[in-house]
Amino acid sequence: MHDTNDRPLLSTRAAELFIAAFFIILFGITAWGSWELGAGWSEIGPAAGSFPFYTSMIIVVCSALIFLFGARNKEAAASTYVTAHQFKQVLKVLIPSAVYAGFIGVIGIYVSSIIFIAAFMMWLGKYHFIKAAIVSVGVSVTFFLLFEVWFHVPLPKGPVEAMLGLN
Amino acid sequence: MEELGLLFNGFAVVLTPTNFLLMLVGVTLGVLIGVLPGLGGANGIAILLPLTFSMSPTTAIIMLSCIYWGALFGGAMTSILFNIPGEPWSVATTFDGFPMAQKGNPGGALTTAFTSSFVGAIVAVILITFLSPIIAEFALSFGPPEFFSVYLLTFAAFVGMAKGAALKTIVSMMIGFTLAAVGLDTVTGQLRLTFGFTDLLKGFDFLIAVIGLFGIGEILLTMEEGLEFKGAKAKIDLRVVLHTWKQLPQFWATSVRACAVGCFMGIVPGGATPASFMSYGVAQRFSKTADKFGTGEMEGIVAPETAAHAAGTSALLPMLTLGVPGSPTAAVLLGGLLIWGLQPGPLLFLEQPDFVWGLIASMYLGNIVGLLVVLTCVPFFAAILRIPFSIIAPVIMVICAIGAFTVANSIFDIYMMIMFGFMGYLLRKLSYPLAPLVLALVLGNAAEDSFRQSMLLSSGDVSIFFSNYLVGGITGLSIVLLLIPMIQGALEMMRKPATA
Question: What was the pLDDT predicted at B122?
Fold first, then answer.
């Protein structure tokens, strides 16, 4: 951990304002979508859009209040929401996980898991290739037996399983 | 005592070899889930739910509820040995549990925690045994307005009892309701808020939200802290257990108070986490050795553990009798019931007595088995915690992905899970509570339906929610709860104008 990496990346106030603004926009859109659908009274009671319209509007109003209170909060401006080093640590898990999820649809969950676990161990844990391979293959095979063989719950499979005749 | 007869029938249901074996498996898996970071009662059960589809509902609920008891026990273990709460409700256990372990008595601290948990759970189960048939019978006469008022009370309780910002509780809850509305509207058949995306047609499943928010979110938070497990060596032998048990009865008053706090917070959906903090606070206020709290007092372990377990267990009472879960984990169990084709609520007691009483009997046995498992297997579970995070983290990620996929055989759900995970990480750091979001997502459609039916009954007149003493009383209480934070906020503003 280098000192330069531990500088604050985002203050709590900035994060607070950002999330509140995000909610105002997102749920402003859902409120509008519900309104389009009909948010009044119909012959079968409240129309389909009324409930989500009101829940969305409550979020917009509350988030606006959080935004206003947050903007005046000097304490939160001084406190750190996340440091650069912390955020880097988080991205180190988040990005590989997103890539892993993307791969599941293409090469199936078992092969993706082998690659994901092994890569994670070697990259972040500095494990030797052999150790990483043993653990990752072991875990995947265990899950294969557990789900496909014992509990008959089919999981996504890809070309490798097809080649091995395991589909 | 009709309940006792029914309860003994329940024991007969549970004590088949298969059910008993699955109970053991459930408790062991539960402790494991409670010990591992990123896996907890709610998402652990969500992930294992698909494995029970081929079982009978009774067997399935026995195994899943035993996972829950195990997870409740497991959370305490990491708190005491490693000063890392495995579950949010065991944070308060670290205050005195870890110092006591550091002072050279980890066995005593663990025994105190496990025994207190057990006491809390058993008291709550006794409460369930005798109170739930009464509530269920009472609830049989409920119509849509009554149900809506109960839902309203459930959510108002969150706002009124929340320690943090009420605004954030409301936002979190309303996000749950809005997400629940996405997809096909059950009343009109219209598509809602899908904005043309076919993947959104089936709506947001709360199980995905649970796995993402609690599972992935937790991993991201743990990763940020750069966590390393370093802790006391754990060993419990019979001598330590007996010695501890001899000391425990002197804290009976603390225990009684903790049970009361826990049961109350579990039934109104305050949940185990606030219950444990509240109970710790109450115990400290009443204690003769209050100044020693935080240095390894036994009483400081008894209070939060008893309350957390009492709350976690009694959260099942409203789930069984009214179909309103008192905690995210109870919500997941409720989701399970729906998948197995059972309708939770008052009719369950009439139509499925084997199921209900089997479940209640398994609560007694599950907790006894749980206590034995944790007392005997501490070194084994503690060893698992020594596996480095760089192995545990990706494996848990894989488990979460499998769990998310199996909910609806949809790969899109895995993407949603990761998105929920990142949201969970961001929101938790800003202290948005996540439990209201999950409960609203589960109950959204039921709450909305009861509201729309009520409105239809009254032709749009909201006074239907005050049309008799029962519904009027519940609605009135909800409004009072909703007003609490506003009054508090107003008082605070008057006291210190514009310093915020």
Answer: 93
Three-state DSSP state, A8: strand
Q: Please indicate whether residue B2 or residue B65 has the higher confidence score (pLDDT).
A: B65
Residues from chain B contacting residue A32 (CB–CB below 8 Å): none
When pLDDT is averaged across residues A162-167 and rounded to a whole number, the result is 80
Residue A2 pLDDT level (bands cut at 50, 70, 90): very low
How close B335 gets to chain A, by Cα (Å)?
A: 19
Distance CA B108, CA B106 (A): 5
Nearest CA of chain A to the CA of B177: how many Å?
A: 7
Q: What is the pTM of this model?
A: 0.84
Cα(B93)–Cα(B113) distance, integer angstroms: 8
Pull the structure tokens for residue B254.
């603390």
Contact check, Cβ <8 Å, B401/A98: no
- Residue B458 CA to residue A89 CA, distance in Å, equals 56
Q: Is the pLDDT of residue B499 over 50?
A: no
Interface test with B, best of A97, A114, A128, A150 (most B CBs within 10 A): A97
| Interval B300-340: pLDDT, tens | 899 999 988 898 888 888 888 888 887 788 888 888 888 88
Q: What whole-number distance in Å separates Cα of residue A143 and Cα of residue A148? A: 8
ipTM: 0.92
Rounded mean pLDDT, B440-460: 86
Structure tokens at B392: 């545990």
Note whether A32 contacts B: Cβ–Cβ < 8 A. no
Q: How many CB pairs below 8 Å do chains A and B form together? A: 171
Query: What is the C-alpha to C-alpha distance for residues B500 and B495, in angstroms, rounded to an integer?
Result: 11
Residue B480 predicted with pLDDT over 80: yes
- Cα distances from B331 to residues A49, B43, B315, in angstroms, run 25, 11, 9
Of A41, A120, A151, nearest to B394 by CB-CB distance is: A120
Which segments of B182-293 does DSSP mark as H helices, in order? 206-210, 217-225, 238-247, 252-267, 272-286
> SS3 letters for B333-373?
HHHHHHHCCCCCCCHHHHHCHHHHHHHHHHHHHHHHHHHHH
B440: nearest CA partner in chain A: A55
